[in-house]
Design brief:
Layout lengths: L13 H13 L5 H10 L6 H13 L5 H17 L4 H6 L2 H14 L12
Helix pairs in contact: 1-2, 1-3, 2-4, 3-4, 4-6
Length: 120
């Protein structure tokens, strides 16, 4: 069985898992698949550290990479769950990352999309 480091360490407290996942995103030596998994798992966590880590990665990836899109999807999921968005960052978003955010918010929390966003 091929487990990720987090899956093989069930004793890690949930609040520590978010920190570890952000650490994977920030680690230049982490494999691409590990970063993709971390980005997807981060949707399950909340808080300023998680949001800032996702935002930092989206920016670093130029809003267009697969990793940026996965982070944007998780960020939108966090925003939908907490019923609030970072309006400043939403205004900065563009490209595929913006499409991911609008798609998730449109499906889960359309009331969070400000007027003028999401229209073609």
């Amino acid at each position: 069985m091929d487990e990720t480091p987090l899956e093989s360490r069930a004793e890690i407290a949930p609040e520590e898992r978010g920190v570890l996942l952000i650490g994977i995103l920030d680690n230049p030596a982490a494999r691409e698949d590990e970063k993709y998994d971390a980005a997807m798992y981060l949707e399950e966590f909340s808080g300023p550290l998680v949001e800032s880590g996702l935002i930092r990665t989206i920016r670093a990836e130029g809003f267009t990479s697969v990793l940026a899109q996965l982070c944007a999807e998780s960020l939108a999921g966090v925003w939908a769950r907490r019923d609030g968005i970072d309006r400043d960052f939403l205004c900065e978003l563009h490209g595929p990352a913006m499409n991911e955010v609008l798609g998730i918010l449109g499906a889960r929390a359309p009331h969070l999309i400000p007027t003028g966003h999401g229209e073609s």
